[in-house]
Design a protein that fits this description.
This protein is an alpha/beta fold. The chain has helices at residues 47-55, 96-107, 111-120, 136-148, 166-181, 216-223, 228-241; strands at residues 9-18, 21-31, 36-40, 62-67, 70-71, 81-84, 154-158, 185-190, 201-206, 209-214. 34% of the residues lie in helices and 25% in strands. The chain has a six-stranded mixed beta sheet with strand order 6-7-8-3-9-10, sandwiched between helices. The chain has a four-stranded antiparallel beta sheet with strand order 2-1-4-5, with helices on one face. Helix 2 crosses helix 3 (111-120), helix 2 (96-107) runs parallel beside helix 4 and helix 6 (216-223) crosses helix 7 (228-241). The longest helix is centred in the last third of the chain and has 16 residues, at 166-181.
Amino acid sequence: MPKHGQAAVVVENLVVRRGRLEVLHGLSCELPPGQVTGLLGPSGGGKTTLMRSIVGVQRVVSGRVTVLGEPAGSRDLRHRLGYVTQAPSIYGDATVLQNVSYFAQLAGASRARVAEVISQVGLDSHASALATRLSGGQASRASLACALVGDPELLVLDEPTVGLDPLLREDLWRLFHELSDAGHTLLVSSHVMDEARRCDRLLLLREGRLVADATPGELAERTGTDDLEQAFLRLIRAEEVA
């Protein structure tokens, strides 16, 4: 775990290009430990690129990303970090149980832990189902179970609630806060602004630049509105005027 008062993730002057297009423009931010930080903004704004940079699978042009006190992508971080991509990251020809058990073996987790995380993501009744038979939302939850089974200190979740009904979304956000209460750090991306209220802190990203880094309360005070979608629009308009 990070030392007391130390950020779980520190991003400094990060520049990323894809081909000739610069995707992140000298971005800097920090993730406080033991909190749920929401990464929000329109599609194509750089959210996934920032997450890939934190996980250590994105080639960067310049800048530095430090994760749990180590350079992003370090071997020592492999069992300390869990990453769930937008596309389900499970084996289609294996069952939910087999998928989670496989990742448990890699992480040295117990059979009891496998059963625990399958239950946490609400897939008890689908444990014996092949991944190819799962709905999109079920496959996303199976991927989350695979990331959780090693009990990572940092969880990076790229739009984990897409395609889920309101009850399942509620259950997952409850789980996210249970994890943060237990000391885990979570970075959760979304383009749905109503999920912003569920976060302890918000990073609002647009066109590869950080528009805001604040708590929901601070953002409301800064923009003069409790409607976080309107708050985001007001910040964008203020930037355009400036």
